[in-house]
Amino acid sequence: MKRIYKTIGIAALVVLAGAGTWYYFHSKADNSITLDTEKPEYGYIARKVTSTGTIQPVDTVAVGTQVSGTIKFVYADFNSKVKKGQLLAQLDKTLLEAVVNQYKANLAVAMSQLTFEKSTFERQTLLFQTGSISKADLESALYQFNSIKANVQSIQAQLDGAQKNLSNSNIYSPIDGVVMRRSVNIGQTVAASFSTPTFFVIAKDISKMQVRAAVDEADIGNIKQEQRVTFSVDAFPDNTFDGNVEEIRLSPSVSSNVVTYMTIIKAPNDQMKLLPGMTANVIIFTKEDSNALLISAKALKFNPDASFEKQFKIQPLNPDSIANRNSAHRKQRNVNDIAKKMTMDSTDNIVPKRAYVWVKQNDMLIQKRIMTGLNDYTNVQVLKGLEITDEVVTGIKIAEETATASGTVKSPFAAPSRRGGGGGGGGRGR
Fold this sequence. Notes:
There is one protein chain. By secondary structure, this protein is α+β, with helices and mostly antiparallel strands. The chain is built from four helices and 20 strands. The strands form four sheets. Strands 2-11-14-13-12-15 form a six-stranded antiparallel beta barrel. A four-stranded antiparallel beta sheet has the order 3-10-8-5, with no helix packed on it. Strand 18 and strand 19 (379-384) form a beta hairpin. The two termini are 59 Å apart.
């Protein structure tokens, strides 16, 4: 019996020793802190404004008719390249020619009457000079002559209008360009009584397109003429097209209480890939720097607490307590959050902002005050306060449990591993 108790005691001691060893090493591993650090690097950063827009030709002309009638001939179609003065379509001229002939006949009758009345007036004038007729008879002859003369002028004007309408039955291209839309067919009747019907829409030059982008009112203050623009279209997802801001139209558009301003972007189309009506995903670069000293934006949010003092020597800018430093960091973080909403000033220069980062030197964490510029919320431009040799802390991670000779420590609820399984991925740290 004593041997049994002795065996149980030895087993208990072994279990306690193993549990103590496990607790010691794993609690130590759990308490160890690994810092994510990086060194500032020179690179490209930009402030951008995103928007969507529609691709349109720079100049389009709607071609219609001033007279009513029936379409007899159509000489142009979609995508037809036309020249200025080229005949595009023709109306049926039968009725228009009949009206012209009618006014010509009326004019001939009026001219005949004018000749007769002129002759009568001249004869009455001679008779009046000899005293054969009264002055009243002379004035009556003059009145008839003037009336017929005015009638001739009226009929001549009507004839000119009829001839103009006859000429308007031929539809000519007013510019050199490409037919984007055709709205009529042979045999179709068009009425020009109240509004001019549109036959064709012609684009002047489709090798030069423009993007009409709707920019939100919160971003429009950053947009300036000649700023660089890139955009993509769904038809060519692998291609990026370049452009420049040409014009900001002052007429706002309101939709669902959202105010936007039409921004015109010049877009060369030498490869003829851009088609009218395509949707463009636009990026406007309001400020760029291709040689900026950069750190990760998350470095501005890091701040050590009291637990770091067990492993590192904390050296803040001011000898405040850890609690005060945490409070100050929270206040600074609020200031940084507000600063994110700040935009460039009226002179198109970046407004420098103050921020704080922590630099690791051996077993020390040293707080530094820096001045920041551009911030794309991934990287931050450092204007002052850091060198490229500084090791900036961007975050922390708890050291993972390491594998032992007998295997890794696992949860009893974890699924059993597959025999012959591959290795797992590791984290990246500096």
